[in-house]
Design goal:
This protein is an all-alpha fold. The protein has one domain (25-141): Four Helix Bundle (Hemerythrin (Met), subunit A), CATH 1.20.120. It is built from five helices and no strands. Helix 2 (28-44) runs antiparallel to helix 5 (115-138), helix 3 (63-79) runs antiparallel to helix 4 and helix 4 runs antiparallel to helix 5.
Amino acid sequence: MTTRLVNSWVFASLLGLMFCVSTANAGVFLDEWKQIKKEFETSTGKSKPSAKAEGFFRKKSGLEDALKNLEKAQAKAEKDTEKRKEYKTAVNQFGKVKTTYIKRLKEVQVESDDQGYKHAIDVMIIKLEDLEQKAAEVMNTW
């Protein structure tokens, strides 16, 4: 009886470990973007640059929505190999949104005289490029 109990415990532990490994990246990309924003705002004392909009309104960058879609596609692709194409599409979509936002960051950078602010924008750009690279690398693990 004891051996059966130990074997059951080992099996349950292995299943739990497999679940943890397969969902290890779930939510990581959006969380990382939020951390990038937080670091920018902490180092500059200002909100992240937003896309241009008419009047007093700030336009959303679209990065959070793209990352949410990316994470949903990743969760589906990890469960069903037929859904991996959707993940690749989501990575490409994030890349397009990221590129558009980086263009806006560079515009803001040119307009600013604050060297610390310009440096913080450089750091944000590097981290966004790194985030896209990490998202693309997930496909290499399948």
